[in-house]
Amino acid sequence: MNPFPQDHCLICHEIIRPTIGWRAIFSIETEHLICQPCERKLERIEGETCRICCRPFHLIDEKFRKGDLCHDCFRWEEDVEWQGFLEKNTSLFLYNDFLKEVIAKFKFRGDYVLAKVFAQFFTKKLDQLAPAILVPIPLSEVRLYERGFNQAVALLVESGFVPSEILTRIHSEKQSKKSRLERIHLQQVFKVDTEITLEGQRIVLIDDIYTTGSTVRHAAKLLKRAGAASIQSLTIAR
Amino acid sequence: MRFIIKDEILIPSNTLDDSLPISQIPAIPQPPIQPNYLYNRELQQLLTGKQLLLDDIPFPLNEIQSHYENGYITYRKGINQSGKKPICARCGNKNLQWFETYPCSCCGETCLYCRKCLMMGRISGCTPLIGWNGPVPDTILPAKISQWKGTLSKGQMEASNRVVDAIRENRELLVWAVCGAGKTEVLFAGIEAALAAKKRICIATPRTDVVLELTPRLKAAFPEITVASLYGGSEDRHLFAPLTIATTHQLLRFYHAFDTVILDEVDAFPFTVEESLQHAALQARKPSSAMIYLTATPNEKWQRECRTGKRPFTTIPARFHRHPLPVPEFVWCGNWQKQLQKDKLPANLLSWIKERILANKQALVFFPHIPLMEKSLPILRLIAPTIEAVHAEDPERKEKVQKVRAEEIPLLLTTTILERGVTFPNIDVAVIGAEDSIFTESALVQIAGRAGRSKDHPDGVVTFFHYGKTDEMLKARRQIMAMNREGIKRGLLD
Prior knowledge:
The structure holds 2 protein chains of 2 kinds.
Chain A: H1 22-26, H2 36-41, E1 65-66, E2 69-70, H3 71-78, E3 88-93, H4 97-107, H5 114-129, E4 133-136, H6 141-147, H7 151-158, E5 167-169, H8 180-184, E6 190-192, E7 202-209, H9 214-225, E8 230-237
Parallel strand pairs in A: 3-8, 4-7, 7-8
Antiparallel strand pairs in A: 1-2, 5-6
Helix pairs in contact in A: 5-7
Chain B: E1 2-6, E2 9-12, E3 20-21, H1 41-47, H2 61-69, E4 73-77, E5 79-82, E6 85-88, E7 99-103, E8 110-114, E9 128-132, H3 154-168, E10 172-177, H4 183-196, E11 201-205, H5 208-221, E12 227-230, E13 243-247, E14 258-264, H6 275-284, E15 285-295, H7 300-307, E16 313-316, E17 329-332, H8 336-341, H9 347-358, E18 363-366, H10 370-381, E19 388-390, H11 397-405, E20 411-414, E21 428-432, H12 441-448, E22 462-466, H13 471-489
Parallel strand pairs in B: 10-15, 10-16, 11-13, 11-14, 12-13, 14-15, 17-22, 18-20, 18-21, 19-20, 21-22
Antiparallel strand pairs in B: 1-2, 1-3, 4-9, 5-6, 7-8
C-alpha cells in the first residue's frame, strides 16, 4: 500500500495537486476526482435562463427571446399538442467543446468511471428535486448491449439514487442523425412499462444532454398522460 | 460476452446458468482446422495478424463463431490475470490506476475495463480479442519489386547491407544514423528483400506526421505493392498489405503479424514514456522476426549496450552530403532568467541574433519553457518585428513553420517541439538556457542536427547559451564530435 496515494485526474490523468490551506487541513478531505484546470473548463450554467429549458439568455440574441422563454420553448408551448408537459429542465453545464469530448468518451467510448465526475454535481441537484421518481431516458436493447451501460442510469447510480426504469424505447434509430423537424414529428418513441402507479407523482427525467428537448418532451407527454402530476428533467449538458 | 464450454468448444450464451464471461474461463479451447471449411476471404484479409474487438469486425457474430468452430478464428481473453492482478491483453497495462469497473449489460456482472487503451475500443473482462488462425492471404509479387532509382552514399550502403542481413536472418539491429544521414533510403533494400521472401513488414513511428511523409515515398519506391497507411482515423484500417506504415498506437490492433518491424525514432515521445506502445511493438511482431530500430540519438542505456557489444548496431556517422556535423559552441550568458525578469536578455545572445538579422541568415532559437519564450518575444521584436514564437499547443504551428520555409519569418523562437522532424535548408541554431533539464543529450543532439542540412548550405552555426555547463551538454558535444571522427576514419567525409 502506498501511504501517500496520488490522485490522478479522471479526465486528463495528470496528478492532482492538492490545495493547501487551513480548510484542507481541518476539514474532512472530499475526494478529488478531477484536477482544477479540468474543473475550470466545465462552464456552469448561471445567470438568467429560459424558464423551461435552462438555456442561458446571455448566449442568445434578444430577438430569440419571448419573455421568460426562449424561442424554441415558446414554439413548443404554442403547440396545443405539446404545451404544459415539461415543467422545467435543469442542466448543469454548457455543452462546450471540452464537455463534448468528455461526454463522448463517457458514453460512446464507454468510460463508465466518468459518471463519478458528474455524480458529484448531480447529487446536490437531485437532493433539491426530491422527492420524485427518477426516470432515466432508456437506450434500445441493441445500443445497450453495444455500450454495456446506460449513461443516464450510470449517472443516477453513481449519485447514490435508485433509477426507476419505467420507460422503454420503441424506435432504435439514433436521434442525433435526425433534424429538429423530424424529431418533433416522430411518433412516440417510448412506452411506459410499470406496475407502480404514476397518479399524482412528481417525475424527474434523467439524460446526458438536452439538445432540442424533443427526447424529454416525448417522454414527458407519455408520462403525463399516464397520470403523473409534474415532469421535470435533469441533464449534464445543455 | 458470456460463453459455455461444450465438447471442447466455446459457445456464446447469455442465458445458461453455467455460462461465464470470457476472462473467467480457465483455458480457452481452440478447435482444430477443418480443411474443407469454406472460409470467408474478407474475414481472412481483415483478421490476419490482428487482435480486434467484435465491434471492429463488420461481420455477424454467427459467422465469426462458425469460423472459430472450424478452427479459423481464435478467441483470446481481453483481460488476463497474473496471480490476482489484471493485465490488459492488448496494451499490457497492469497499473490498477488504469482499471475501473462498471455494471455490464453484456455479461450482467461487474466488469473490469482498461482505461489505458480505451480510445481503441473498450476492453473489459467479458471482451474477446478476435484473431485469425487460418492460412495467410496470398500476395502476388510483381516481376520488379523496387522502382527506386536513387543511389546510396558509402555510409548508407554499409548500413543498408546490415539491414538486409538482419531482415533475412530475423535478427535485431539498431541503425544509429546522424540527423540528415538519409535513413529512409537505407531501408529500401531491406524492404525489397523482405517482400521478395513474402514477408510481411511494418514501419512504425510514434508520430502521425512521419507516417504521412513516409507513405508517398514508399508508394513511389514500391509502386506495385499494396501499402497500408495507418494512423488515428485513416481509411486503410481494414486493408491487408504486405507493407504497413503505422503509428505505434495502431500496432495495438496487431498480434504476431509481422516478420519485420522497423521502429523509427525509438527515442521520441510518446514511445519512450508509454509502456503500452513498447508492449504493442513487441506484440505486433511474430515470435521469430526481425526488428530494426532507427534513431539519431539512442538513450544512454542503449549507447552503453552498443559500446559493450551487447546490442548489434551499425552507425551512419556522416550526412549524405559528406560534410561534418556542425559542432555546438558553448557560450556562458549569466543568469539570463533573472535578467529576463527585468525585461532584458543577455548581451551576447542579443548580438548573436542581431548579426543573423543583419546578415539575412534565418535562425531557430530554442527555449526551455513557454513562459520564458513568451516573455522574450516582445524584447526580440524590437530587433525585428517579424520574429515569431511557436510551441506544441500553438494552433498556427504548421503555418509558422511554413512561413519560415517561405523565408517570411527571419527568426523563430521555439520550445523542444521543433527539435526533430522539421528540416529547413539553411539555418543557424541557438539554445538559450541549455543548462535546463529539459535539454537532454538527445534533445541537444537533435537540435544541433537542424543546422547544415542541405548540400548547398552544409555549414551552420550551433550555439548553446548557458548559465553553467551540464553533463548533458558535454555528452551531446562529445557524441557529435565522435560521429565526425568516425566519419573521417571511415572515409565518409570530404
